[in-house]
Amino acid sequence: QVQLVESGGGLVQAGGSLRLSCAASGRTFSSYAMGWFRQAPGKEREFVAAISWSGGIPYYADSVKGRFTISRDNAKNTVYLQMNSLKHEDTAVYYCAADKHVRTVVAGSAEYWGQGTQVTVSS
Questions:
Q1: Using one digit for the tens of pLDDT, what is the confidence trace for 95-111?
Q2: For residues 53 and 42, what is the distance between their CA atoms, to the nearest angstrom?
Q3: Of 11, 54, 53, 60, nearest to 37 (Cα)?
C-alpha cells in the first residue's frame, strides 16, 4: 500500500515557477515508478510527466517539455515537479501517481493516486 500526499501548489504569475512535491508512505517507494497528472476545470485529466523507479529517462507531455522537470529522491520517499515559465493554461489540480511500471503510469492507469494540489497561474 502506498499513500501519496502532494504539496507546493499555489498562485503564481505567468512566467513564474513552482515546485510540487509528492511524499509517499511505505518502505517500497524506490520500487515504484512515479508520475504527475493534471486536470483543469471542465477538462479530462492529462499526463504531465513520469519517472521510473531508478530515476532514469523521464517522460514528458509535449506541452511541458523544456519547462517542467520531474525528479525523485528515494531516500526521502519524494518525487518533485519543478515547473518553470508557467503559463495560464498550466492552471489545474496536479495529482501524483505511483505504479510498479512506468508505462502504466504514463497511460494514466497507476495503482495509487494522491488527492491533488491546486496550481493557479495568473495571466
A1: 999 999 999 999 999 99
A2: 32
A3: 60
